[in-house]
Amino acid sequence: MRIQKAAFKLKLSEFTIYRSNVFLNFFFGCVPLLVYIFLWKAIYGNGLERIGGYSYKQMITYYVLIFLCSEVLDARDNTVKMSEMIQGGQIHNYLLKPVGFLSLNYRLYQAEKMIYLLNIGIPFLAFCLAIHKFIYWKAYNLLFFVISFCLAFVLKYMIGCILGLITTWVEEITGLLDLLNNVEKFLSGSLIPLTLLPSGLNMALSFFPFKYTLFVPVDIYMGNMKSQDMGISIGIQAVWCIVLGLVLIILKNEAFKKYSGYGS
Amino acid sequence: MISVNRLCKTYKVRQQTSSKNILKSLFQSEYRYVKAVQDISFEIEQGEMAGLIGLNGAGKTTTLKMMAGLIHPSEGTVTVNGFIPHELKKEFLKKIGLVMGNKSQLWWDISAYDSFELEGQIYGLTLKQIKEKIVDLADLLDVKELLGIPVRKLSLGERMKMELILVLLHEPSVLFLDEPTIGLDIISQKKLRDFVKRYNYEKKSTTIITSHNMKDVEELCKRIIVIDHGTVIYDGLIEDLKKYSKESDFEEIVAKLLQGTQGQ
């Protein structure tokens, strides 16, 4: 806990330097949401009440929540940093600490994300109030949403770390990272709700972890899942966390056996 | 005590492809094997300060990294205070410290003090202990006024002093210094050397220094290990080396020694 507190303090100091960048990125990230409002208005304008199980307001709320979750859960920066540290040798700084590489990295990552969430919380609420006419305010299953969101947080972190550690073998992961990002955008429900996809494809996506990183927590929040499905989805999220956690530990051990400490 | 026995390290390096073979390289990579360290053995007693010297690419840093546990040896063994370094056991990591002149361990955008706080917490120190140690060390190194300044705004000499404070916070009993005075002016070099000497004297730490600056080695160490092409070509007292040499200048003596092997 003391390390977590110090990590939080350190990341807060760091955040104050980059805060203007963070806020600008956040506000510009909101722009596509305005486009969604008009786009879906045109689609629903044809007399459709529900599409993929969502009303118009629910659809807009879906995108707003997806935006918030993907901003907070985005692990790309951590992946790139990890990859650069392996390439440049700065990973020494983590390897020789008695708390373990992944443990320290996760604490710093968690602190960074908490600070981000705390800082964009008010602007995000202000944005929601500004477009309140289009928002579906009913929050279902808040507790289950929080649980699912936390599991998604861990999942996204682990997927990012696995990719970052692959640098030990392939040296350059930018292409792989871009590929994964695009695949993930589609498979996680970031582009469209997965209920809009053919049921066979939607079913197939259940065998990949991506659906559980965005779509599942948001769908739980929207109240679209029956309580039994909710339990199953959260259970699957937990199983993915365990599986990817094991993969990550094995990969980390193998990576550092192979690591040659270039760059110095 | 550090014991290095028949230590070898071979790197597998991917070959740069010529434009002729670029298509072939997409499917089949070519590798070459570089023997960075070949059959090195030596022992260093508790409290001893020894210098590892040699030309660029001689294998000094690779040897140091194997002693610190950053990389796995290809053959042979290393033990440091009874621990096998690359196992990275917590008890081992709590007892060592590594400073690399060309790799910063400090957080670039924030003050050194914030980095020290996290570092102290990682090693289980209380806030009071951390504060006391920072003040003591900063006093000794004359950087007390600079503790609150972002690291990127410090001069190289000031930054190196901060790097030393960071590594010495947990009072390591084994200290690895890889080119600690690289790029520093003569006054800063002298201050840093005096500080390291004092730390070694007070804490009876085992210290290994690699440096191209012969003044560092001559002033700090009684014993040197000269490495060339991955093998030890001299292991003994500086005094003995001087006694049997026609030259009086230590740098000249080492240069002659290395030139001798280059000609072979």
Provide structural commentary:
The complex is a heterodimer of chains A (264) and B (264). With 264 residues, chain A is mostly helical. Chain A has one domain (2-258). Chain A has helices at residues 2-44, 56-73, 76-88, 92-95, 101-130, 142-165, 167-170, 174-187, 199-205, 215-222, 227-258. In chain B, helix 4 packs across helix 5 (127-141), helix 4 packs parallel to helix 6 and helix 5 packs antiparallel against helix 6. The radius of gyration of chain B is 20 Å and the shape is globular. Chain B is of the alpha/beta class. Chain B has a single domain (2-95, 172-263), classed as Rossmann fold (3-Layer(aba) Sandwich), CATH 3.40.50.300. Chain B has ten helices and nine strands. In chain B, the strands form two sheets. A six-stranded mixed beta sheet of chain B has the order 5-6-7-3-8-9, with helices on both faces. The chains are: A mainly alpha (264), B alpha/beta (264).
What is the CATH C-level name of chain B? Alpha Beta
Average the pLDDT over all residues of chain B and give the rounded result: 88
The most extensive interface between chains reads: A-B, 28 and 35 residues
Supply the number of helical segments of chain B.
Answer: 10
Structural class of chain B: alpha/beta
Assign the CATH architecture of chain B.
Answer: 3-Layer(aba) Sandwich
The protein's oligomeric status is heterodimer
**N/C terminus separation of chain A:** 33 Å
- Low-confidence regions of chain B: none
CATH overall fold name of chain B: Rossmann fold
Give the biggest sheet of chain B. Answer: 6 strands, mixed
The span between the termini of chain B is 34 Å
Helix/strand/pairing category of chain A: mainly alpha
- Could you name the CATH homologous superfamily of chain B? P-loop containing nucleotide triphosphate hydrolases
Total helical segments of chain A? 11
Largest sheet of chain A: none
